[in-house]
Amino acid sequence: MIKQKFAVSGMTCSACSAYIERTVKKLRGVENVQVSLLLNVMTVEYDPAILEASGIIEAVEKGGYGAEAGAVLSGETAAEALSGETDWIAETASGARAADPDSRRKRLEALAEEQKRGGGRKKAGTQAKDRMSGELSEMKRRLTVSVCFLLPLFYISMGHMAGLPLPGFLHGHPNAIRFAMAQFLLCLPILRVNEKYFRGGFTSLYRRAPNMDSLIALGSAAAVAYGIFAILQIGDGLGRGDMARVGQYMMDLYFESAAMILTLITLGKYLETRSKGRTSEAIAKLLELAPDTAVVVLEGQEYVIPTEAVLPGDILAIRPGSKIPVDAVVVEGTSAVDQSALTGESIPVPKGPGDTISSATVNKAGFLLVEARRVGDDTTLAQIIRLVEEAGASKAPIARLADSIAGVFVPVVIAIAFVTALVWLLLGKPPEFALSNAIAVLVISCPCALGLATPVAIMAGTGRGAEQGILIKSAEAFERAGTIDTVVLDKTGTVTQGKPQVTDVAVFRGTERERLLTLAASLEKPSEHPLAEAIVAAGELAGLPVIPVEEFQAVFGQGIEGVMEGKRYWAGNAAMMASRGTALYEAADEIEGDDKGEAANPADTAKAFAEEGKTPLYIADEEGCLGIVAIADEIKETSAQAVRTMKDMGVDLILLSGDNAQTAEAVRKQLGIDKAVADVLPQDKEKEIRILQETGRRVAMIGDGVNDAPALVRADVGIAIGAGTDVAIESADIVLIRSDLLDGATAIQLSRATLRNIKQNLFWAFFYNTIGIPLAAGVFYGWLGWRLSPMFAAAAMSVSSVSVVTNALRLRLFKRKVSGASAK
Asked: CB within 8 A of 666, min separation 6: which ones?
């Protein structure tokens, strides 16, 4: 199975997207189909051995719509935007990493020359803006032409009702034909510039897949047809001298209704398209982060080439103030890199040889030479863009109700309009009365509001999340996040820094602190244990010498031992000390680090450290215990605030840890977490999540390691720390780029806000159609005298669509609520 995107054109409402989904789903070899009305994108999972992309395109085109394989609304996917899949790039890229320097140089010279001539293509963000601008310009042209002809048409048809003068050749019954033909001729240009409604609407009707255009086309065509019928009646009346009939049909031409319907619908579509464009601004902003060019260095010569032409292994020159074009590793130079565009971290991060740097970050200080590692659609920026696009194009479960209704909405409305006309005729009302109500029913119905209610909110919400360093992979996961009532936290690397550090040193028997650290760091140097790294790092930081170790031995589950300077030493836990006969109840001389008060002996000192969640490591020689080094994985600065914020949101918190119960409990107490489960193996983490779910809890798991992957998959929503492993990130539904637990609370808040917005939109869409259609049909006319003109019905329809999109745009102003701090 492969998943492929198709750009779909010609969709105007959710009835269109529902029809395309049904049609493509019926094709043999198709596993899944999702059509986004907002982005004009269809994503299809299908078996290429059974079905080709051309077959999918053909099925869509048979329905009267257009389709293009491998493209989206902007004309290209984010991956294409950054990988540069154009012919001239492909030709030069092939064999570019050949060992022959001449071949590489020729390639770079050709690319640089192409760039100088302006042959490099525009960035995707620019292309998207150009296409959106072109679409809006076309709508504006249609709207301008419509308004220019509508104003004189309205003056002629309605002006005399307001006491405005009419030209003599249009006034009175004798000039009735001129009066009617003037309106008809003014209406024709409006019909012509808005012909797409008729072409699309009647084509869809013919294919038994009516959509919003069908309603508009039927309504306005019926009004024009009745107007032409009225002209014939006027002519016949004049010929027969029946002035009463002439006067009657002069007032029932309906050309102004048809023109007003088309003009108001076009106005609504114009405003709607502008607003929809704003919901995708997050993607456009991300695309703009990628620089247009990169400077490749080969044999001392610099070549300015398009960013999309950079290949892994190329050496790039990054000057101060320049954006970094691809993910790379520093090979020469030092600098500070501003990573705020990706992580939100405002303080530039120092970078030197061996450090990794990401695309779209900014070199703030020194000159760097870097080696390209991940380019094109493999860069960090491209992956972020892809996640945002996929989330916006996917469908949330809450949208299924609207989609199922949209599939039958238009046919039902057409039936209601027909029944409306028939009933009023049977009740003895004149044909123009019945026709007016039927037209109003057709044009007031708004499947657009139903179709847009969910996707515009999802796009705005996921875009806002991306701006705050929160990547949401799918709309379904985004919706589920809003229902979470329990959050399970992995301890190491999620709540804590994930990097053990020496926090305290206690010395005995007159041993000096520096001497103890020197012995500990030297003894731990050959060890591969994570705690050994912390002790060695502390020794290096203090500038202490390393004593050579002989006869090094690691004792499983206890510690290590070795000979230094002709004397045997060991370091480990209480079991190690007991096996070597080391006494642990001698008085302590001094404790440096956190104040422990009067510690009577090594055993009590170690116990005090352990109660604080620290790991005590005894250092001893053949004569007794020399001291204790306490090591801890320190809690992140924002973890406590994140816990308070989630608890204030009504979320229960559970800490899962592979550490011992004492350490886990110490962290739990320090942060105020509700419950801690210690000594947990990877499979047990998944089991704990399952147990919670079986009790009816909606569970989110926040983790960062490979061992968290099963639990991340099992949870209703898996949230991965951005600094975590690739496995954890792939297993998760949401990724926190800044590795900040507080962003986990923000993700839940944003999801809840988006869900509220969607429900508001759906309520308005259902309420509008539930009230609007009966009102247009004249249901209230009999006892309240309420009757809706087709012109007002068209205006109401336009307002409905625009209001839904505008309401969703409020999510762009979302600010998180943090306990004990200001929102941001």
From this structure: 610, 611, 612, 613, 614
The Cα–Cα gap between 60 and 80 comes to 23
Whole-number Å distance between alpha carbons of 154 and 181: 14
Tokens of 404: 């199922």
Please give the helix or strand (H or E) that residue 571 lies within, else none.
Answer: strand 567-572
- The DSSP-derived string for 102-133 is HHHHHHHHHHHHHHHTT-SPPPHHHHHHHHHH
Give the Cα separation of 720 and 653 in Å (integer). 16
Q: How big is the CA angle at 722 (ends 702 and 34), to the nearest 5 degrees?
A: 80
Which pair of tokens denotes residue 534? 């912390």
Helices 431-444 and 212-240 cross at an angle (nearest 10°) of: 160
* Closest to 224 in 3D by CA, of 262, 275, 196, 193: 262
Positive/negative CA dihedral, 739, 742, 745, 747: negative
CA distances from 533 to 345, 393, 518, 542, 575 (A): 27, 45, 14, 14, 21
Residue 606: name the closest of 635, 586, 636 by CA: 586
The per-residue DSSP string of 261-279 comes to HHHHHHHHHHHHHHHHHHH
Structure tokens at 509: 């028997």
- Bridge partner list, 397: none
Beta pairing class for 734-736 and 717-721: parallel
Model pLDDT, residue 185: 95
Per DSSP (E only), the strands in 622-714 are: 624-632, 652-656, 675-677, 699-703
> Residues 419, 424, 426, CA angle at the centre, nearest 5°?
95
- Please, which pLDDT band fits residue 94 given cuts at 50, 70 and 90? very low
Alpha-carbon span 45 to 54, nearest angstrom: 14
Helix 212-240 and helix 243-250, axial crossing angle in degrees, nearest 10: 160
Tokens standing for 532? 């050994």
Tens-digit pLDDT profile for residues 307-359:
888 888 889 999 888 889 999 999 999 888 887 666 555 567 788 898 888 88
Whether the CB-CB separation of 718 and 712 falls below 8 Å is answered with: yes
For the chain, what percentages of helix, strand and coil (3-state, to nearest 5) are there?
A: 55, 15, 30
Q: Which two tokens stand for residue 298?
A: 């080969």
Cα separation of 620 and 507, whole Å?
11
The lowest-confidence range among 41-45, 125-129, 649-653 is: 125-129
Instruction: Specify the pLDDT at position 711.
Output: 82
Residue 490 annotated to the active site:
yes
pLDDT, mean over the chain: 80
Please tell me which residue in 490, 504, 659, 740 is annotated as part of the active site.
490
Q: Which residues contact 795 (CB under 8 A, 6 or more apart)?
A: 264
Q: What are phi and psi of 103, to 5 degrees?
A: -65, -40
Q: Do residues 96 and 311 touch, judged by C-beta distance below 8 A?
A: yes
* For residues 629-657, average pLDDT: 90
Query: Does 813 have pLDDT greater than 50?
Result: yes
Exposed (0-12), middle (13-18) or buried (19+): which is 595, by Cβ within 10 Å?
A: exposed
pLDDT of residue 85: 33
Q: How confident is the model at residue 247 (pLDDT cuts 50, 70, 90)?
A: confident
Question: C-alpha distances in angstroms, 5 versus 41, 56, 414, 554, 625?
Answer: 7, 11, 33, 55, 67
| Count of C-beta atoms within a 10 Å radius of residue 275 | 21
Spatial neighbors of 422 by CB under 8 A, at least 6 apart, are: 434
Residue 294's SS3 state is strand
Q: Which two tokens stand for residue 390?
A: 């996929």
